[in-house]
Amino acid sequence: MSDLTRMTATEIAALVAGGETSAVEVTRAHLDRIAEVDDRVHAFLHVDTDGALAAARAVDERRAAGEELGPLAGVPVAVKDVLATRGVPTTVGSKILEGWRPPYDATIVQRLRDAGTVMLGKTNMDEFAMGSSTEYSAYGPTHNPWDLTRIPGGSGGGSAAALAAYEAPLAIGSDTGGSIRQPGAVTGTVGAKPTYGGTSRYGLVAFSSSLDTPGPCARNVLDAALLHQVIGGHDPRDSTSIPQPMPDVVAAARLGATGDLTGVRLGIVSEFVGEGAETGVMTAFRESVDALTKMGAEVVEISCPTFAYALPAYYLIAPSECSSNLARFDGVRFGLRVGDDGNRSLEEVMSLTREAGFGPEVKRRIMIGTYALSSGYYDAYYGQAQKVRTLITRDFTAAFEQVDALISPTTPFTAFPIGARTADPYQMYLADLFTIPTNLYGGPGISVPCGLSEGLPVGLQVMAPTMADDRMYRVAAALESAVGTFTPPAL
Ligand code: GLN
Known about the structure:
- Belongs to the amidase family. GatA subfamily.
- Heterotrimer of A, B and C subunits.
- The structure is a single chain.
- By secondary structure, this protein is of the alpha/beta class.
- The protein has a single domain (4-267, 403-483), classed as Amidase signature (AS) domain (Amidase signature (AS) enzymes), CATH 3.90.1300.10.
- Helix content is 40%, strand content 13%.
- The chain contains 16 helices and 11 strands.
- The protein has helices spanning 9-17, 23-41, 49-64, 107-114, 157-164, 181-187, 221-231, 249-256, 279-294, 310-325, 346-357, 360-373, 379-402, 425-429, 436-441, 469-483, and strands at residues 44-47, 76-80, 118-123, 170-175, 190-193, 213-218, 265-269, 298-302, 405-409, 445-453, 456-463.
- Helix 2 packs antiparallel against helix 3 (49-64), helix 7 (221-231) runs antiparallel to helix 8 and helix 10 packs across helix 13.
- The radius of gyration is 21 Å and the shape is globular.
- Glutamine is lined by residues 129-132, 155, 175-179, 207, 318, 432.
């Protein structure tokens, strides 16, 4: 049953629950697909064949025993290598954690296991989730299944590529400035960044703690919502987790799929539809706006003037937090240790380990962050960026007094060729121009495929108020019902 890899998560779960296929069969089909294509795609850093088959067998046994299975039981999922997985290598795309097998599961991973999903393995990513193309992985780049010479986005390019290459029907990503939505956009898949605090950070290797948000990736909106529901909700182990029930994102996705947006008010962010985006991206976006209007949505333009300062503010706040968070990688506690020959001091071993273990982009950020936080510069850089963050939040709040959700293209450009932007960090940073404001504000954002430009996927972003994740699913599902899903050429 080789077409198991082409099915949605919803379809797979129904077949498993109905006994028409087994979780083991589904898992084998995806492991076979990985074996067939992943030497070209390189979506995975680690494939956990034995663990996946054991998890699948457990689901089949529970079913045979008459136990009631959850809505995603037996469905394979690929997990970004930023989440701790007990006994399974967790590298964050970095040499500094090579060989580390965490002694515990991240809350999200635990919830995936409890729900009976089957973890296939860990996906490739830019080192420490810093990047927009997966080219900064210490283990080599991932290739976009739409065109293997192009990037799959980043930092979660592995998760997005695994979906587009039919290696997994579901995946987990993490979004600090766009790393779920931007890879979703350039691979023609769906990526949702939940409200900050709506998904647990316990066991998520920290990059920028006030921004990091793990979330679901899928090939369609309903599957993303089902995954969101499984992984989301309050976690007492994360002090920033929101102690409130989360909105019913699955019901919202189902409602949206009816294609009726009567009474829904949408605001196009004026600042994001000017010269910033490629022509082909803008054409697909404009056509989608027409489709949303036809479904009954009222669409207006809204100016959010401070969004223009989001990128510079982010590139002070994120490096500042990373410079502090990454201090723990000292060669003592986990992963790599270099130069410990019995003669060197602790400081020397730490310094040699960090020199060898971190790549150039990570070092650049640690240096920028350390500088921005240093005495004498703190107010001018970090303090100023925090003020800008407050202004951006005010722009969101004011916009949401007029509209239910904001929309924009997800990215200014489609997937670029591997190597095209690595020489100039600023060119790489621009990939997140439209996604970063959401992270600074803390609200939810989703990217949903909205068309093609010269044969490459374009994403539309829906941004909603904090804890109104259901709204973005409704709009995204409605758009999907109008434009359909997009299939890459055969690999
Ligand atoms: N590309 C952005 C960065 O490099 C965002 C990364 C992310 O969301 N993890 O920081």
